[in-house]
């Protein structure tokens, strides 16, 4: 059974660790993340962007696939199915399809419109026991066509959105989606600290987890980050392993063309990446 992300993130915040959100793209991806979470007894959040939802034939297909898979694989750790960077309309569609958590990304609106729309999504979501993530200060880079300018969030605006009753808050602190450029200035810990001071118990979310050095991740967790989004890193691991399989000509040997064989190294690579992240985030063994 899917659960809201609220409780697992409150536990993470008070326990000073973070729960990983791993974005899924297909059946193999979902299976890899769920099996790793179960093996490591870690809570987990499956992230689905609107683009990925469309690719997987809609939110209903995704929610039904995840629920059926959890039953068949006997997954007993807490799992939240979360809409990543949702539009206002998308958030409602995901809730109707059975998602247990939604992000409404109103960061590209002015603060007044962001407040108004976020309030509306929270009212609907909470009436159904669904958790809500909001965003202040657009996160840089590009994610499924959502382009952020890499702003640094204003701690006062963060407090204003937090006070609306969101369950988790994403704030731009110099983090970006995708690969980080060589001249990246690093995370703004001064801003993160100011945001935590103002928002107190609110679990904070770090987007763009790919390529942030481990010491910065640990420091971010110590300053109140309780959810870290990982997307690109799993994609790169999958790509590298699949490339190797084909470049080594393994698809040409015997039944190496069988998709169950051809995709297997990529799946193993996703599992290894998820494991590495769960260990870094400190969520291993926290499912109980
Ligand atoms: Zn993001």
What does it look like?
With 288 residues, the chain is of the alpha/beta class. It has one domain (6-235, 270-281): Alpha-Beta Barrel (TIM Barrel). The protein is 47% helix and 17% strand. It contains twelve helices and ten strands. The strands form two sheets. The chain has an eight-stranded parallel barrel with strand order 1-2-3-4-5-8-9-10, surrounded by nine helices. A two-stranded antiparallel sheet has the order 6-7. Helix 5 (88-97) links the parallel strand 3 (79-86) and strand 4. Helix 2 crosses helix 4 (59-72) and helix 2 (27-39) packs across helix 12. The structure holds zinc ion. Residues 85, 139, 143, 177, 207, 229 line the site of zinc ion.
List low-confidence stretches. Answer: none
Order of neighbouring strands in the sheet with most strands = 1-2-3-4-5-8-9-10
Write down the CATH class.
Answer: Alpha Beta
Name the beta content range: 15-25%
CATH topology annotation? TIM Barrel
Q: What's the shape?
A: globular
The share of residues in helices is: 40-55%
Assign the structural class, choosing from mainly alpha, mainly beta, alpha/beta, alpha+beta, or little secondary structure: alpha/beta
Taken in chain order, the helices and strands follow as HEHEHHEHEHEEEHEHEHEHHH
* CATH homology superfamily: Aldolase class I
| Rg value | 18 Å
The number of helical elements comes to 12
The ligands bound in this entry are:
zinc ion
Mean pLDDT: 93
Number of domains: 1
For the record, the CATH architecture stands as: Alpha-Beta Barrel
Taking the sheet with the most strands, its summary is: 8 strands, parallel, barrel
Distance between the termini: 15 Å
Number of DSSP strand runs: 10
């Amino acid at each position: 059974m899917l659960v809201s992300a609220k409780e697992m993130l409150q536990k993470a915040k008070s326990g000073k660790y973070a729960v990983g959100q791993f974005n899924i793209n297909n059946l193999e991806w979902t299976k890899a993340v769920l099996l790793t979470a179960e093996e490591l007894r870690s809570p987990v959040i499956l992230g689905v962007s609107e683009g990925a939802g469309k690719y997987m034939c809609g939110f209903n297909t995704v929610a039904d696939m995840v629920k059926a898979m959890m039953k068949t694989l006997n997954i007993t750790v807490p799992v939240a199915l979360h809409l990543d960077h949702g539009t206002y309309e998308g958030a409602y569609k995901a809730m109707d399809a059975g998602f247990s958590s939604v992000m409404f990304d109103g960061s590209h609106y002015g603060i007044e419109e962001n407040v108004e729309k976020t309030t509306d999504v929270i009212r609907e979501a909470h009436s159904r026991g669904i958790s809500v993530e909001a965003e202040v200060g657009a996160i840089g880079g590009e994610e499924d066509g959502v382009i952020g300018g890499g702003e640094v969030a204003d701690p006062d605006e963060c407090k204003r959105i937090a006070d609306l009753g969101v369950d988790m808050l994403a704030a731009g602190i110099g983090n970006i989606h995708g690969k980080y450029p060589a001249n990246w200035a690093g995370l703004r810990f001064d801003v993160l600290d100011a945001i935590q001071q103002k928002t107190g118990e609110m679990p904070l979310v770090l987007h763009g987890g790919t390529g942030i050095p481990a010491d910065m991740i640990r420091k971010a967790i110590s300053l109140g980050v309780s959810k870290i989004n990982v997307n690109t890193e799993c994609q790169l691991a999958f790509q590298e392993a699949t490339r190797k399989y084909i470049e080594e000509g393994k698809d040409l040997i015997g039944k190496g063309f069988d998709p169950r064989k051809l995709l297997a190294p990529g799946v193993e690579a996703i599992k290894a990446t998820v494991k590495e992240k769960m260990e870094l985030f400190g969520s291993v063994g926290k499912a109980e």
